[in-house]
Each structure stands twice: as C-alpha cells, then as structure tokens.
Design a protein that fits this description.
Layout lengths: L24 E5 L5 H10 L3 E5 L3 H8 L12 H10 L3 E4 L15 H9 L11 H32 L3 H8 L22 H6 L9 H26 L8 E5 L14 H11 L3 E5 L11 E2 L2 H5 L4 E4 L11 H7 L4 E4 L7 H4 L4 E4 L6
Parallel strand pairs: 1-2, 2-3, 4-5, 4-7, 5-6, 7-8, 8-9
Helix pairs in contact: 1-3, 5-6, 5-8, 8-9
The structure holds nicotinamide-adenine-dinucleotide.
The site of nicotinamide-adenine-dinucleotide has 14 residues, from loops.
Length: about 350
C-alpha cells in the first residue's frame, strides 16, 4: 500500500504510476526534503527525471536506490528504490545533466501542464507577487498561531494551570483551533517566512507578525530557565550540571535540524556552565553538537534530562531505569510527552512548558 506522506498534500497516488503520453525529461535541482520526494513522485508519473545536487554522498545514495532522508518519510524509500531500479530516476553532480530537459523552469502555462501530471489538488494561477505573499503569509499564519499557544503556555505556567488542558477546553468551542505549545519553532520555512513577508512593508509597520517571532524565539530560552529551576529544586546548580538533551531535530520523527530550537536551548545552558550531552534517534552530529544514538550513554550520570523534541522513542522511556542512571533527578519536558504526575511519582522533579502545577 502506498503511504507516501505527500499524498496528504494532494499528489496523485504515487505507487500506481500515472501513464504519460511520452517520456518527458525533467531536471530537479536539489535533492532534499522537497526535491527528492518531488523527483521520485514525478518519476512515478512515467517521466525521466534527473536530480541535481552538490552533495556527492546524497547523489551516490540516491543512485544506489536509497533515500538519504532519515526519520519518518512513509513510502519514500520504496518509491526511490522502485523509480531508480526502473531507470526513471537518477541523481547527478553535473549540472550539464539537465541539458535537454523538457522541464526546468517554464512559462505558467507549461508549469501548469507539468504540475497537473502528478498533483491531484486544485492548482491556482496567480501573479508572482501574490504567490510570494501567499507562500510567506501561510507560514506566518502558523507562526502567529503558535505564538498564541506559546504565550498561553507561559501565562499558564505563571497561573499554575496546565496549558494543554486549557487548550483541550478552548478547542471544545466551535471554530477554535488552538495549536500545541512547546519548546520552540524551527525548520527552514516558518522562522524565515514571517520576516520575508514583513520586510518589504515599510508604511504599514507590521507589529503582530514580528512579535509572534519574538514569542516563539523565546521558548527555547524558557526551556533553559526551566532546566535551571528543576536543577535548583533537586539541589543542583546549573553550573557544572550534566544535562541530557533528548531531541536535536526541530520536529518529531525527522532528522531535520534546521533552526532547531534545541540548539538555542543548548547554547543558553552552555552559557550558564552546564555540561550537555545530546540524544536523537535520527539527527546527525553538527559542528559544536555531538549527537549520540545511545540513550543510556547520554543519560548516565545526568543531573537533568530535557525533552526538546517529541520523537516517538521518548514516549517509551523506562523511567525507573532512567532514574537509577541519573545523578540528580530533574526532568524537563518541552513537548508534553509526559503528563507530569507519572514522572513525579518516580521521584523526579518535573517541570514542563505550559505546566503550571509543578
Ligand atoms: N521543507 C519544506 O517543507 C519546504 C516547504 C516549502 C518550500 N521549501 C523550500 O524548498 C527549498 C528546498 O527545501 P528543502 O527542505 O528540500 O531543503 P534541503 O536542504 O533538504 O535540500 C536542498 C538540497 O539542495 C542541494 N543544493 C544546495 N545548493 C545546490 C546547488 N547549487 N545545486 C544543486 N543542489 C544544491 C543540497 O545539497 C540539498 O540536498 C527551500 O528553498 C525551501 O525554503 C521547503
């Protein structure tokens, strides 16, 4: 069964290739989170696709019929494998491999015909500036909604209530869709698009959208403060404390670390003298951030664990064993992975974003 995630966005069923009138040659530049699924999806329509990238490892991996993306990308690995083995998808480092392609960039009419090959959803034609405003406004919309949820979380902490319970009850009212608060907002698009939207607006002096950015940027700093508070409540100063950070990716079940709020939290804690270890089941190490796969090694002798990303793996932690491995028992939950009482019952000091009762 095809479970490829882009089906959520209206791409035609990708496992059943859409027959084409002739084999169109398509060049796609960049084989990342967007380019690779797109290249494989287009190949599945019967097109002959070359994906260009500057990353040799990525090119080799794709040509070996594998997806270089870790994390949960349902159906993508099988799709890439199938299309490479059928000879419809190949990757190249050489830009001249795009020569002779029918589609790289095209007129609106040609682009429409191309997208119709594999997109089920309605395709809207509009002018260039409207399209840019729509793209950036759509992401700014999420950012503002997330900032609202995060601000309610900060208020809830101060007033001693659980923001997640507040959210559940708010959302019982018709047309309310309060989003999930948390330890920060990352990724490639949402942290940058609000700035792209407001930067050309000189006379209207936007305030709401920049303020939302500030609220969301504050969340990882709030996490660092919660770590400090949890350590203090368990009899440990942050300076010299061992803090095990669980999750380095910006979002659950992906390896994507672009603008990850975990990085800001780690920097804040290092500035206060904490000694940081980092665990992530998918993300790789980066300069200044050694990411380990072994949860036991990361948490052994820790004074505090801080959940920065709601990876599924963190919902099944053996809390008793974790408690035994740790030196002090501070537990900070930035993603509501645990309700709280079950952690406190095992002797942890628990703090969390939006958790005012602890
Ligand atoms: N990730 C999303 O959800 C999303 C959504 C909408 C739009 N976008 C936009 O799509 C674009 C790609 O995003 P992504 O998430 O796939 O990024 P990504 O970092 O996963 O992929 C980019 C790929 O391009 C390659 N690359 C960089 N410079 C190159 C060059 N000069 N020639 C050939 N290849 C090159 C990189 O090696 C990488 O493999 C970005 O502009 C992003 O803003 C992303």
């Amino acid at each position: 069964m095809c479970r490829f995630s882009n089906s959520l966005f209206g791409l035609k069923p990708l496992c059943a290739a859409v027959p084409s009138e002739r084999s169109v040659r398509v060049a796609i530049i960049g084989l990342g989170y967007v380019g690779l699924p797109l290249a494989a999806a287009v190949a599945a329509t019967g097109a002959n696709v070359v994906g260009l990238d500057i990353d040799a490892e990525r090119v080799n991996t794709v040509n070996a019929g594998q997806s270089p993306l870790r994390g949960r990308e349902p159906g993508l690995a099988a799709l890439v494998k199938g299309q490479v083995s059928k000879g419809r998808l190949r990757a190249s480092l050489d830009p001249s491999a795009a020569s002779g392609a029918d589609v790289i960039a095209a007129s609106a009419r040609k682009a429409l015909a191309f997208y119709r090959r594999f997109v089920n959803a309605e395709i809207h034609l509009t002018d260039w500036t409207t399209a840019e405003v729509v793209k950036t406004a759509e992401n700014a919309y999420w950012d503002v909604q997330l900032a609202f949820a995060n601000e309610v979380a900060l208020i809830s902490e101060e007033l001693g209530v659980d923001a997640y319970r507040v959210r559940d009850l708010v959302n019982t009212c018709p047309y309310r869709m309060m989003l999930i608060p948390g330890a920060g907002v990352g990724g490639h698009c949402i942290p940058k698009d609000p700035w792209l939207l407001v930067s050309p607006a000189v006379q209207s002096k936007p305030e709401l959208i920049p303020t939302a950015r500030e609220v969301n940027d504050f969340m990882p700093r709030r996490m660092a403060r919660l770590v400090e508070e949890a350590l203090a409540a368990s009899g440990r100063k942050v300076k010299g404390a061992r803090v095990a950070v669980l999750g380095f990716a910006y979002r659950e079940n992906t390896d994507d670390t672009r603008n990850s709020p975990a990085k800001t939290m780690i920097q804040e804690l290092r500035r206060r003298g904490a000694d940081i270890t980092i665990h992530d089941p998918f993300a790789r190490s980066e300069r200044g951030y050694a990411v380990l796969r072994d949860m036991k090694a990361v948490t052994k002798g820790a004074d505090c664990v801080a959940i920065a990303t709601a990876h599924d793996a963190y919902r099944k932690i053996d809390l008793k064993a974790l408690r035994r491995r740790m030196r002090h028992a501070a537990f900070v939950d930035g993603r509501n992975v645990y309700a709280g009482p079950e952690v406190v019952k095992l002797g942890f000091v628990y703090r969390g974003i939006g958790k005012g009762q602890f």
